[in-house]
């Protein structure tokens, strides 16, 4: 994001993160992130310097203002989430220095949706209000009723006459978490247990590449000229996937956003300014995916794509006879990026998750409880912008390396990887005078995103669809 495209910019050597008593910096995290992807020493050495503390970045990100009780002070996050966001940006600027200024304040992406929607901190409720932390018989659950028809599923979930939050809170203590999770996953409800991050100590994830899975398929692409850019087909919706696609567009890729005529990106019904931020610079194609013709058109576009971004449960595409693995095997150098709540592997391949509940599943609310004495929601759908940033780094690197891979990225796993770098809890409550808390702010998109289907005819003619 060069300074000419967006309206705000933020304002050495590597400082290795060695101890739980020492806060990780954005540069430390960027180094760890690139290392987890197998990036070699020349690029690691080129990582820009940024030794601002995680606490300073969190206070300035806007996400701190969204964390805490509505009538209390904003709270620091035990996990260095803003440093993770900025570190991912540093990694992206290292891969594409001609397109991304290293001093862009990427950590502020964590708060920009809230800035546009006017969200405030609500304690154990998400700023957007759709996710709440509620107690069942043996655990605390994050329940995200993000769709209107989710409330219609509550009677089937609890097998009793419940239709609102008050009734839900009253009934849940009678049920164990395991039963509730099993039923929720069968019904397609976004429910998660508040649990500790899976790591083996401060700053050390149990698996150094645990935030993604990479499976090779087919042949890699032969080396291409430096100015050659990929064709990206973006099937994703809402926040994480579209942000990834928009970043790839900013890096010079041609990005075609594909939506269903009868099932468009749900973000179109929200803030137009937010939709523009996620989708400006993309061509907009709408297909009738309920018809054989529309499914054939989609299949052909996916065949031609160099990078595919999708954020649906695998079975949704499989029902249209679209499978990532054979398409990768048929086209040398293709990159298929799958963004889901919990990954593509059974049994969790079809579990639903959104940004707030995925953060709880990754351990954020339990970390907040350990530090502040009660479970709280951390930021606004925090897993979404973090996953969008990480996915753009991963997809761009895979393309540079010649492709031929299926990239499996889960919202929960991205946050869990970052939470593995949490510092000692004593660092979670620094002097607020040293770190003044900034409200959420949002960029201004340089262009309006296209209307639904604006470019359908032109793209169909070009590719003979």
Automatic annotation (TrEMBL):
Record keywords, A-Z: Transferase
Sequence intervals crossing the membrane: none
UniProt keyword RNA-binding present: no
InterPro entries: CoA-transferase_III, CoA-Trfase_fam_III, CoA-Trfase_III_dom_1_sf
Top-level taxonomic group: Bacteria
Molecular function GO terms recorded: transferase activity
Pfam families: CoA_transf_3
Name under which the protein is recorded: CoA transferase
Phylogenetic classification of the source organism: Bacteria, Pseudomonadati, Pseudomonadota, Gammaproteobacteria, Cellvibrionales
